[in-house]
Protein 1
Amino acid sequence: MEWLNAILQGTLLGGLYALLAAGLSLMFGVMRIVNLAHGVLAVLAAYLGVILTTAFHIPAFATLVIVVPLMFGVGWLIQMGLLNLSIVRGGLAPILVTFGLAVVLTNLLQEVFTADFRSIQAGSIATDSIQINDQISIGVFPLLTFVVGVLVIIALQVFLSRTRSGRAMRASSDDKDAAQLMGIDNRRIYALATGIAIATVGLAGVFLGIRTQFSPTYGDVTLIFAFEAVIIGGLGSLWGTLLGGVVLGIAQAVGAQVNPAYGVLFGHLVFLAILAFRPTGLLPKAVNA
Amino acid sequence: MKIARSLQAIAAVAAVGLLASACGNSLDAESSGGAASSAPSAAGSAAASAAPAAAETIKVGFVSPLTGPLAGFGEPDTYIVDQMGAWFAANPIDVNGTKYNVEIIQKDSQSDAKRAGEVAGELINQDGVDVVLAHGTPDTTNPVADQCEANATPCITSDAPWQPYFFGRGGKPEAPFKYTYHFFWGLEDVAAVFQDMWGQLDTNKKVAGLFPNDPDGQAWSGAFPDLLKGNGYTVNDPGLYENGTQDFSAQISAYKKDGDQILTGVPIPPDFTNFWKQAKQQGFTPKIASVGKALLFPSSLEALGDLGNGLTSEVWWTPTYPFSSSLTGQSAAELAQGYTDATGKQWTQPIGFSEALFEVMAAALQKAGSADKEAIAAALSGLKVPTVVGNLDWSAGPVPNVAKTPLTGGQWRLTDGGQFPYEIVIVSNSLAPEIPTDGKVEPLS
């Protein structure tokens, strides 16, 4: 029963990882950019949530209405102002830009909000649970996080496969020169992709802020787990990211059940095993030309 | 191919990133050190011109974590260093009739043990300081003290239990350190305080242990079972977990299975929040929770929301402590109020210790009779000084180099419309009867 519980709680944790990793996966899928500022952007969104709940007394979940569009704007501006300029320089340049952005943002957050730990107060939902039996009960909030994580992945997948902009995005991803010849403005498509990616980070950030306490440096921890979820699932594949998140979550929970010291370690081991034996990930995207 | 290439790129970026952050760090420290030192030294020279006799100057280095995950410990330091700089500018230390101006050079350890050692080295070798002060967990105190010991420079540290400070640095009671001195409480004190609080409630004496795999977690989990055995408490420790663990269901099911009614541990704040919420979700409800580290700062409690009400913790210092500063004469309450007035923030426990470092430095200088490093180190070895955190006595320590401070136990309670949402109520003073209690432990609801 304990093992079943570990797998169940691990799966729910995987939903959080998938939610955190969705934007990372999308940006890599479309532009081949590894966004190292991903974690700190999630923390930025969490701080926005704190401001809105404490200063304006907006309920925790209602802040999403403001935070998500705002983060979309942040993503759009980052792409238009920074990444589009560096992407033409190829390979490393945009990654270095995101690294710089992460350092600047972390220090800015520290300057503005100090190193104090903060959290978004969401009331009793944070601790409510559904009791299954004596030994297993499921937290309402982790369940909600999992559902939202799955919905975000589905929504992104539908967007990419069914909408005009989504198809343009895939076209840019497959061959940006050919896409341009077909009349697609790559720069705008990239800005849209980053905007959407950072909007999902905004969503994830608010959930993270409700779930735990964070400080400006908390982004590093989240980046590592999100990054592992993406790699385990397969770079650039959204379904893979969901699967990767769940595999990582279960590995950590089951590892902790063996011995609490092995929780995080098991996650890293699965990650390394995937890199060693199946470097394309569990659900690799079809290789592009 | 593409993926292999991107992974290579990532590895390269990581390497470049490390380099870049290393460079960034040193730049940052230069500027912060320079900014901090300029004001007091300007004030110092003003005082020097006012004094007719030839005035001496003692250079003091101050290392603490101002940024990074440990920054909570260093939060009051900018205020304290400013205050002490202004105080010494107006009141130079009187050493047998000679006035000593004090120049303070502040450095940021960036919550990194390696960095803390580096800036201590810079202070000694480049800035030529006479004494180094440092505080904020063993990650700050130990590398700084090691650096000072190696460079024969007196060092005064605090805010780390004395066992990780003394034994963690390879100290032996029969062969003590010559230049480095520390004041704080020890693990035996925290175990005694916790047991005194638990004894106020009726429990089955089964203790759930939540210990991380870091220096504090290792020291606590190693020492607690023996320290608690005498009173019949048994510790259920499922094993050390890594900091940053997101899922605690394994620990929670182990605690539930054992029927533990008491929780203790020394987790970092985000991990404790994760644990505590999951414990509520999964139905682990101890009668009392006494937790170190995660519950030190009011901001951590505020971040827990209503869930923090009734949690207990060890208390190093509060404004209700009946001590006052040997330098400024300020009481503990006045010191804390001054901080709140200047910053708008609630008092925190390191404030008293940060100030007391300067008290010890001044007392050692007066006893030594000059800023000579050997003389100051010799003076420190048997120093007795009454400070705002209690009466320190280096001749009576558990080991040489260490003076103990009084420890009490407190329970965080939601205030009813006060200036700040939480306040800590002293509920255990068995180790320090001179400090008044404000109530008894109330069980968690």
Protein 2
Amino acid sequence: MNLKSLLMASALALPAFAAQAEPVKIGFMATLSGPSAALGVHMRNGFQLGMKELGNTLGGQPAEVIVVDDELKPDVGVAKAKGLIERDKVDVLTGIVFSNVMMAVSKVANDAGTITISTNAGPSPLAGKGCTANFFQISTQNDMNHEVMGKYAQDKGFKRVVLMAPNYQAGKDALAGFKRFYKGEVVDEMFTQLGQLDFSAEIAKISAASPDAIFTFMPGGMGVALVKQYDQAGLSKKIPFLSAFTVDETTLPATKEAAEGMFSGAQWAPNLDNAENKAFVAAYEKEFGAPPSLYASQGYDLAKLLDGALKATGGKVSDKAALRDAIAKAPFKSVRGAFKFNRNGFPVQDQFVVKAVKRADGQFVTESVAKVFTAHQDAYVGECPLK
Amino acid sequence: MSSTLFLLQLLNGLQFGMVLFLVAAGLTLVFGVMDFINLAHGVQYTLGAYLTALCVAKFGHFGLGLVAGLLGALILGYVLEWLLFGVLMHRSHLEQVLGTFGVILVVTDGLKMLFGPAPLPLAVPEAFQWSVRLTPTLVYPAWRLAIMLAGVVLALVLWWLVAKTRLGMLVRAGSTDRETVSALGVNIDKLFRLVFAFGAVLAAFAGAMAGPLISIEPTMGDNILILAFVVIVVGGIGSVRGAFFAAILIGVVDTLGRAFLTGWLAGLVGKPAAASVGPALASMLIYILMALVLAVRPQGLFAGAGGK
């Protein structure tokens, strides 16, 4: 099933010269079905909000967005990416939540010479040796938010920590990212089953070890279960809970009070103090009736980046090199504040520790409490041969 | 490894086993007694959690929400039985698998369309927001104790129903020889509908009780269904007693494996090797156990021991 939404601007409303113009075509791929769909839905919401504010134009040109669902399956992602590139002839391929899908799709896009802007997935091979001029990443390299937590634990003087992640590649990468900046003692490293429901055994071990803090990467439903059980075991008040991609606005509606006071690494938070962010958060809440998440902010930034780049090329997409150079300059104001692309196409940006709090209106959101890194770059850029 | 930690992990295993038992009990009755493979049994678990979460949010009271949620799950289960399972009952196993698998897909996507892919909130009821202190560092949440207690009580009720009542006698007879019981003038379809409804409510209850512990999302029933099948295969298909002991066995083996296997292996093969092998082996333990049971005693641990 092809979730195809056409956001075509009415050509009638535009000046005469634009009436004949071919719309700019943007392919947007995300995981929109299955148990992990919440992230993709937030990301799409953010992007569509950005497009709506732009009147469905990019750089003054009418734009057509084609949304497809990769179902979190690399083969489906590849098939649909080929459809977007060969049949729909999209000018830019965007979106993609999960790294395994991105690894498969990036090869297809690169072979076809299609400019790709990842809106969430940031696997290390694409930042290091496998970097290409056509690939951009607008959120974070996967390790960066784990590095934030490692640095934070180090700065806080936590001497003993317990680490926990699901037993798969992203879980192992998360712990490696944490340890890159944490130099204290790792009391225990626990790998859990992917999709695990009950964490009582792990929680009892944490409790018995009584470390200064725990760090975990437990995305989606696993994180919801862990947060609830951690809180019920009475640990959330005793042992600080540090995490990444675990406690955010996609899971807070389910965990509510249980997650209050838990820390995460992030490049954005709803309370970041800049005009763009205030406008974004207000508009998002008005449109969707709930606070935006990290993923929504990335989708929104994507729309603004595309608009800025097309303004710079005068609305032209035919000259790929010119469009690429325009994107590389990141000609937009990110809702996260300072933002630029590194030579590998990945972000250089500030990174924060955020805390889950209950807002006065009863909504649960994350709130930035400290800036951990200023103009932080990923650990793999050194391996990238691009200049 | 302190003895208190071991005791705590044992409790964790027992509690996990109780949730498994509540799901497996219905599955084993339906499978063993009606010879009906119901892959959609996990759906009842999901519906129980969803309806309870929605009703608790509406009424603001856990007990009230639980009762309303279970009632809703019962009605939906009955509708499913009436619409589909009654027809599938007399078909081949393959058609039952296909039909009930279809139900999983429809319900999962239906829930996603209605409530979105994000998990629903459900907190532990206030009366249970305390914990038992075992040692200065180790505590045990009251809600997990409540689940254990509920599991034991329901197991006793089930045992009494199956072993001591006329209804139970009919169910046992029906599982041995359906035609003869039918020929004796018992309305076998009505009996099966009753068994099915009972199993559905047990699974819904398990979902509702587990709701405050886990993430309430459309696919939550899929994971538990596989474990429930492991339980009934190990325990012996159709045996409620088998399901009870097998559920505890699976719960304890799984929990203790996750808690201690890696540490224990580290003493045997060294820390780095244990760190990579331990977690993988721990998640395989219950399947290894099932394979062993199938090799040594293919009918299951409690089948044929008069343990219906």
